[in-house]
Design a protein that fits this description.
This protein is of the alpha/beta class. It is built from 13 helices and 21 strands. Helices cover 30% and strands 22% of the residues. A seven-stranded mixed β-sheet has the order 8-7-17-18-19-16-20. Strands 10-2-1-14-21 form a five-stranded parallel β-sheet, with helices on one face. The chain has a four-stranded mixed β-sheet with strand order 13-12-11-15, with no helix packed on it. Strand 18 and strand 19 form a beta hairpin. This is NAD(P)/FAD-dependent oxidoreductase.
């Protein structure tokens, strides 16, 4: 700001949910906003597209819920509607190379016991799950609780099952579930992230499943992110990557790939952790931030859509050393005598998302009666503008990871699902939360300064 009459200016890097929401907040406070987006579309890791013969499918974020407060507010604001994923008839799960079969209820009962063990401590550790590090900042926290809290970010998410009364089938069931949930190896997954998910779901595995795998938007994620963008005055420049950001306590310069320099009072970077290496920061980011970027998150997996012949109402799980860890029916195409299933796995290199033979081989783990007709997806890990799917946490990163990006000593700020306090890294709710919080903090900073 050159004087008290000049409106503050902010460049927002990224036109996903967090960037769009931050822009709306800033504009409502009178800021001048420009959004630059590396891709040729808005939405970020939420992308509603037409695949598998023209069917509308979500390449990234999909499920929403009324107990996710930030996204539900936007759903209500823009009059969006939801509908449920279908109920399932048959369940398959693999353990020790053997395929077991039952109902979805059978699978839920078998999982609930191991989930209870994995969630152990969630009530103590997260009395307010939207302030996940509160125990560390509270001087009254019992030292023994603090120690257990810190220790819960070590080891791997399945360690708690390897001693005691849990069978190999129990462990394999948990590995199937969490290989999909963490989008990466359970061997490197922070146990604390699963406990945080539990706290955000009233410590109930059934509610966690409902929040993360049950309800979809009638008009897709596209209906929501396009509605938010439609309320903006800001210019959204697509196909406009950022290559360098110079930042100081009073101003920023954002260099675009075409050599153009955008000068502003502040910049909000909403790129995922996996894409931050594409931007040169001057001065360099803090050591803790660079460490996280170098390590990457635990998210090395994929999401795939598979069309199979016939009607199949199934859910299937297999340990993470299989290409697909979790598979379930999503759409019944009666006019085509086909079913569209959605699958998740821990290693994006273990499958070719566009290759029918690769998908067929993966599905044959459960049954050779499922004939793959088509498949598709987007490899978010190989995409340099994301470098990951959702940002799940490696062991040690709950305390020394995403939170390193919550504060800076300059006009450079970070926002996005990767940096959220609530649904961190996982769902659109966290992206919206982070966009609001980051924008409001910047607004308050400028208000305080103008009052001096």
């Amino acid at each position: 700001m050159s004087d008290s009459t000049t409106r503050p200016s902010v460049v927002i890097v990224g036109a996903g949910f967090s960037g769009l929401i931050a822009a709306r907040e800033l504009e409502s406070a009178g800021f001048d906003v420009r959004i630059v987006e590396a891709r040729d579309r808005i939405g970020g890791r939420a992308w509603t597209d037409e695949r598998l013969g023209g069917h509308t499918l979500e390449m990234g974020a999909t499920w929403v819920h009324w107990m996710q407060p930030f996204v539900w507010t936007e759903i209500t604001r823009y009059g969006q509607k939801i509908y449920p994923s279908p109920d399932i008839d048959d369940a398959y799960w693999v353990s020790g190379g053997i395929v077991h079969r039952g109902t979805e209820h059978d699978l839920d009962v078998a999982l609930s016991r191991v989930q209870e063990k994995i969630f152990e401590g969630s009530r103590e550790f997260f009395p307010n799950p939207h302030d996940p590090l509160a125990l560390l900042s509270d001087a009254d926290t019992d030292p023994s609780l603090r120690e257990r809290f810190l220790r819960a970010d070590t080891g791997s998410v399945l360690d708690c099952l390897r001693e005691g009364e849990f069978s190999q089938m129990d462990i394999d069931l948990a590995d199937s579930y969490w290989s999909a949930g963490y989008q990466g190896s359970t061997a490197t997954a922070s146990p604390l992230m699963a406990k945080h998910w539990a706290a955000l779901s009233d410590h109930r595995s059934s509610l966690m499943d409902e929040q993360t795998l049950r309800f979809k938007l009638v008009d897709g994620m596209r209906g929501l992110y396009e509605s938010i963008a439609g309320d903006l005055r800001a210019d959204i420049s697509l196909d406009t990557p950022v290559v360098r950001i110079n930042h100081s306590p009073s101003a920023v310069e954002v260099e675009l790939a075409d050599g153009t320099i955008a000068s502003a009072d502040a910049v909000i970077v909403t790129a995922p952790i996996g894409a931050l290496s594409q931007i040169h920061f001057e001065p360099p980011l803090a050591d803790g931030q660079q460490k996280v970027i170098s390590e990457g998150t635990n998210s090395t997996g994929f999401k795939i859509w598979v069309k199979v012949s016939g009607r199949h109402s199934i859910i299937a799980g297999a340990p993470g050393d299989n290409p697909i860890s979790l598979l379930r029916s999503e759409y019944f195409l009666d006019d085509e005598d086909a079913t569209i299933l959605v699958g998740f796995g821990s290693d994006h290199n273990a499958i070719d998302l566009q290759d029918v033979a690769s998908a067929q081989k993966a599905i044959n783990v459960w049954s050779d009666d499922l004939t793959v007709l088509d498949c598709g997806g987007h490899d978010w890990v190989a995409d340099k503008w994301s470098g990951q799917t959702w940002a799940t946490l490696r062991s040690g990163q709950f305390f020394d990871g995403w939170s390193n990006f919550l504060s800076t000593d300059s006009r450079l700020r970070f926002a996005g699902a990767d940096y959220a306090r609530g649904w961190n890294g996982v769902v659109v709710d966290g992206a919206i939360e982070s966009g609001i919080v980051t924008a409001r903090a910047l607004i308050n900073e400028f208000v305080a300064r103008s009052a001096v």
